[in-house]
Design brief:
two-stranded antiparallel ribbon; about 230 residues; alpha+beta; disordered C terminus
Amino acid sequence: MAEEISSRVNERVENSIANDRNNLSQREITGWQASRELEDYQYSVREQAVKMFFDGIEPDGQFHGGYALNGLPEAAFIAYITDPDLFVQTEAEQYIKGHQEDFLLQFLKNDALLAEYQELVQNTSNPIHRMKSITDAVSGCGAKMVTVTVRKDGAELSFKMEADYLKGHHNTYNSYHIAAADRREFERLFGRHADYKAEDVVKITYGRNTIYEATPVQSEEMAKDVGMGGMNYA
């Protein structure tokens, strides 16, 4: 019953706020704890935006009530049984009154997440788009090992690589996961403990199939960005 009541109260709270911060009586964050929480969130929100981008999830930007009834005292039980709608309305009003700053904080967090996510999506020159394409390619092929062709420092090399380590967001791809025989050639060309970046990857194959290939436009954009002082990685 506590879960049922919580659901009804949350629905009433969310309907009252209607996903509109103008329905709040508090217009700015004043408490030091909430201010610190917002500051910490803004500092780390890019990581969340990146994860959502790779997972193919968009921020919903919706306000969520968060009301949870912990237990059901006898008096509350009787009040709910006697007049469920009045009980829900009273609980919702009290909850809204006591959580204005929490609600505003949620709106501001939603703003920060949406801004970061949109910046990632719209900035197609960011290497994260190539990382996402690489991730999708190796995830979709089901391979354990793939052949990666990189072009860097004026040299080109193809090598076997564990597919799992090409997935996700990386500042660089570690040469440790290159097959041992190919890794020696990689180190000979590029130096011991060298790594490579998303913009260095020109092609990935699995068997006879090319599962990823950088387009000429991508290659030109990446070369231009590197020439202008390097890429800004998320």
